[in-house]
Amino acid sequence: MSDRLERLKHSDPVLYDICQRELQRQRKGLELIASESFVPAEVLELQGSVLTNKTAEGYPGKRYHAGCAVMDDMERLGVERAKVLFGAEHANIQPLGGSSANQAVYFSVLQPGDRILGMKLDQGGHLTHGYSMNFSGRTYTFFDYGLDPVTETIDYESVERLAQLHRPKMIVAGASAYPRLIDYERLAGIAKSADAYLFVDIAHIAGLIAAGVIPSPVPHADFVTSTTTKTLAGARGGFILCREKYAKAVDSAVFPGIQGSMHMHTMAAKAFTFGYAMTDAFKTYAKQVVENAAALGEALEEKGFRLVSGGTDNHLLLVDLRTKKLTGKRFEQVLESVGITVNKNMIPQDPEKPMVTSGVRVGVTAMTIKGMGGSEMREIAELMTRVADHHENPEVLNEVSQAVEALAERFPLYEGFLD
Ligand SMILES: Cc1ncc(COP(=O)(O)O)c(C=O)c1O
After folding, report:
1. How far is the C-alpha of 252 from the C-alpha of 276, rounded, in Å?
2. Ligand 1 pocket, CB under 6 A
3. Residue bearing the CA closest to ligand 1, atom 4
4. Which of 48, 93, 92, 56 lies closest to 72, judged by CA?
5. Strand, coil or helix: what is 234?
6. What is the CATH number of domain 45-276?
7. pTM of the predicted model as reported, rounded to 2 decimal places
8. Cis before residue 13, ω within 30 degrees of 0?
9. Closest by Cα among 133, 130, 136 to 162
10. Whose alpha carbon is nearest atom 8 of ligand 1?
């Protein structure tokens, strides 16, 4: 592979081989999992840096261990960049992931048992928005809202009705599989009239928001959380933005509330991610993501797939496979066999079980980062259609597999950096 793994190659060839195989998989396939991206090489460098050696607990200037002055500079830099990037009053960049960021928000102003209104999991919400087996559903009393069955977009009238009925202390918005824009101003009005906090989880769409290509919840919400992966396309971690009046509660919910020492190498990579997201190159990428998702959606519709809500405003599509007489499970499996990765996903009112589903979620972030545009999106739609229409024909699948590799390799990944 690369000089960077030269030592590993000799000291632990088994792990080296695993890294090599995964690099080849990423290079030769079409990566359409909506939560994935290819991080800049700087993120790989920082995550492999000596910063991993430093133990740091607490906050800059108030650490529990000596020797943290340099790490204080780094955390302050990351916090400042996050605040500027999103126009937020306060930022906490310590959460190790999106789930722990969400846990800290609940923990900051709620008590166990408090009522929360969140989006239904099978209509786009996330596990941390109230799933019964998740800490969220086990700690708090969740009620859920969903989509209008006709438009397949958030039914704001029902959110309003449910907020008045249940009087939750918090309303959670944001999703893992929702292709449309969210009306944050309207949700803020609903939350205000119910005397509830508004918390928006932008894990999937943070990059598009940072680049200004879709609206931001920051002016409207009390709390906003995100991962630094997905459309932000950076380090694997999380962060919280909030109004200044909640800064102390949020900070102490993260530490000492739910976390101990931080992963400073990852925090530095997050700081890089926030800085990179301010560049013109990032803005161009984010605009292209939205254009590519729309182009892929249109091409799939032309080929007989149905898109939930009729299209997309962001980086992902939710594809209803019933017109192709396929389940999400089958389509995911057969696509993977030709080198295209997507994930099965429930669609609204899905008649299938969660491990089977009638849909797949398709995202364009990773392929956009590689440099693909509208014409490649149409090629991808053509390949996906051939797989759907001939999923039991090994000859066609073999041809598609070769076309996938040829298309993927036209757009090199980490060339000159990992080899
Ligand atoms: C909306 C949403 N919130 C939170 C998370 C959790 O992030 P993590 O996997 O970093 O814990 C995800 C991840 O898929 C997500 O989609």
Report:
1. 28
2. 35, 97-99, 102, 126, 128, 174-176, 201, 203-204, 227, 238
3. 98
4. 56
5. coil
6. 3.40.640.10
7. 0.97
8. no
9. 130
10. 98
Domain range annotation of the chain: 3-31+280-409, 45-276
Answer yes or no: are the C-beta atoms of 294 and 359 closer than 8 Å.
no
For residue 203, the CA-to-ligand 1 centroid distance in Å is 6
Tokens of 181: 């824009």
Q: Which amino acid is at 378?
A: R
Query: Residue for token digits 């799939």?
Result: 300
**Residue 130 carries which side chain, given as an amino acid letter?**
G
DSSP state of 303: T
CATH number of 3-31+280-409: 3.90.1150.10
Q: In the predicted model, is pLDDT for residue 365 greater than 50?
A: yes
User: What radius of gyration do the chain's Cα atoms show?
Assistant: 22
Residue 3 binned pLDDT confidence (cut-offs 50, 70, 90): low
Are 392 and 347 in contact by the 8 Å Cβ rule? The answer is: no
CA of 32 to the centre of ligand 1 (A): 17
Q: Binning pLDDT at 50, 70 and 90, where does residue 1 land?
A: very low
